[in-house]
Write a structure and sequence with these properties.
With about 500 residues, the chain is of the alpha/beta class. Helices cover about 40% and strands about 20% of the residues. The chain has 16 helices and 16 strands. The C terminus is likely disordered.
């Protein structure tokens, strides 16, 4: 029997801590359902004490997900743990993940606590968490820069009072693979009650070593890896789930364990997370990048045609490439539409919303013959944001002609008013944004503008991501349409609406 390697996904918590990756409750639920379909063991859904929005999102995930454990993060503070326990009340299986920093630099400068006080607080945290669940995970934050003898003392103490998983975070991505693997081995050997817990790792990618460090830890006895889809996460991100899972699956001759992930759901999950957060996946990204299975050189193409394994160690279809089957077109009926959305994990609160969505689907199908799963996700993303919209695009004329100055005329609805503006610009998108700004006068800085085709072909929808920054607040907005100038206008308005929306939550510093 091979050991089970537990996959703990933190896309909805650490992933959401990437600046601009904030997700709404509905978006979190959609991603959580995809993670559940994929077979993720534990889904860390958020940090309930951070804000009411985060609390509601964790609660919604806990109430929805049935097959994965749902986890909430909490500082080692009674109030935080209480909020996590409450948010998780509806879960089939709940876990509380509590943490406190153990490195000298964090204890002295951030916590202003002595090592003895930190141990005492960690022990209290486990006892508070036990009022809600037995499934408790403890993390000594910044373990990668903590003193090993102190780590042993803290971990022994929390295991004694009931922690079931001890997670070793390389919070600042500082350690080297051999060193990190050795740390896990030493902790397992030196802590007297280490056999009572699962050792977990949580590696950040500041030096590009998050996956290597996680795998080195697995070779030294870690049996849970914390990771995120597309490696999303604080700063340079966390270990990428797809890379960890496929390394272990592909090299079963090397690793003594395997995960329960259904890898065919990986690419759809990657696309969903990228679409929701607006963080594009670089083409040469392992497993989920557009070029990950593309062979350019003649020698490689020839080799693959003669015998696939000459240049390929994995099969594209095994990680979910090519599964976006053509399913719907303009002749598809409402039931086919509803049941495909259901298969994608999308259900609506009322028939009315379904009807609106179906009308939007028909409009799209008139413009675009083939509707793929990604198109449906983009359609839903646009729609679920609609009720929060203060400003909505009513109409847009954008004119560009060789030798002429591009020009845009826009009408925006704001509550019961129609606001009109027009402008010239260096291109149709620039003219459109200038016209919008004449109305909004937002003072926001445009930090990112990116256009991606959702599917292939010239009739594909363009998905535009816009990142705006104002007074230190960063938000992403998305818009999708077969006309990329319209998609650009929608994305700008969606970002602007978020600047005012209560759904955008400021996370306290972790
Ligand atoms: O990076 C980190 O230390 C964390 C902890 C909360 C586990 O995210
Ligand atoms: Zn982290």
């Amino acid at each position: 029997m091979r050991d089970h390697l537990i996959i703990f996904d933190t896309t909805l918590r650490d992933g959401e801590q990437s600046p601009g990756a904030s997700m709404t409750k509905e978006e979190k639920v959609r991603i959580a359902r995809q993670l559940e379909r994929m077979g993720v063991d534990v889904i860390e859904a958020g940090f309930p004490a951070a804000s009411n929005g985060d609390f509601e999102a964790v609660k919604a995930v806990a109430d929805t997900v049935k097959d994965s454990v749902v986890c909430g993060l909490a500082r080692a503070i009674e109030a935080d743990i209480g909020r996590a326990g409450e948010a998780l009340r509806g879960a089939n299986a709940a876990r509380i993940h509590t943490f406190i920093a153990t490195s000298p630099i964090h204890m002295k400068n951030k916590l202003r606590m002595s090592p003895e006080q930190v141990i005492e607080q960690a022990v209290k945290a486990i006892k508070w968490a036990r009022q809600y669940t037995d499934n408790i995970e403890f993390s000594p934050e910044d373990a990668g820069r903590s003193e090993i003898s102190f780590l042993c003392r803290v971990l022994e103490a929390v295991i004694d009072v009931g922690a079931k998983t001890v997670n070793i975070p390389d919070t600042v991505g500082y350690t080297m693979p051999d060193q990190f693997g050795q740390l896990i081995r030493t902790l397992r050997e030196r802590i007297p009650n280490s056999d009572k817990v699962v050792f977990s790792v949580h590696c950040h990618n500041d030096l590009g070593l998050a996956v290597a460090n996680s795998l080195s830890a697995v070779m030294n006895g870690a049996r849970q890896v914390e990771c995120t889809i597309n490696g999303l996460g604080e700063r340079a991100g966390n270990a990428a789930l797809e890379e960890v899972v496929m390394a272990v699956r592909t090299r079963q001759d090397f690793f003594p364990c395997d995960t329960r992930i259904d890898t065919t759901h990986i690419v759809p999950a990657s696309k969903l997370v990228s679409g929701v957060t607006g963080f594009p996946v670089q083409p040469n990204k392992a497993i989920v990048g557009a070029n990950a299975f593309a062979h350019e050189s003649g020698i490689h193409q020839d080799g693959v045609l003669k015998h696939r394994e000459t240049y390929e160690i994995m099969r594209a279809e095994d990680v979910g490439w090519g599964t976006n089957k053509l399913l719907l077109g303009k002749h598809s009926g409402r039931n086919a539409f509803r049941s495909r959305l259901k298969e994608l994990g999308i259900e609506f609160e009322s028939e009315e919303v379904l009807n609106t969505m179906f009308m939007r689907f028909k409009d799209l199908a008139d413009k675009k013959h083939e509707i793929f799963d990604e198109d449906l996700h983009a359609l839903v993303s646009d729609e679920v944001q609609a009720p929060e919209e203060h400003y909505r695009l009513l109409s847009l004329i954008a004119h560009s002609e060789t030798g002429e100055v591009p020009f845009a005329r826009i009408v925006i609805a704001a509550e019961n008013n129609e606001l009109h503006a027009e402008s010239e610009g260096s291109g149709p998108v620039d003219a459109t944004y200038r016209a919008i700004e004449k109305i909004l006068n937002s003072g926001a800085e445009l930090q990112l503008f990116s256009v991606n085709n959702i599917t292939s072909g010239t009739d594909a929808q363009g998905e535009v991501t816009v990142r705006l920054q104002r007074s230190g607040r960063i938000v992403n907005g998305h818009g999708a349409d077969t006309d990329i100038v319209v998609a650009s206008a929608k994305a700008y308005l969606s970002a602007f609406n978020k600047l005012y929306s209560k759904l955008e939550r400021a996370h306290p510093q972790i």
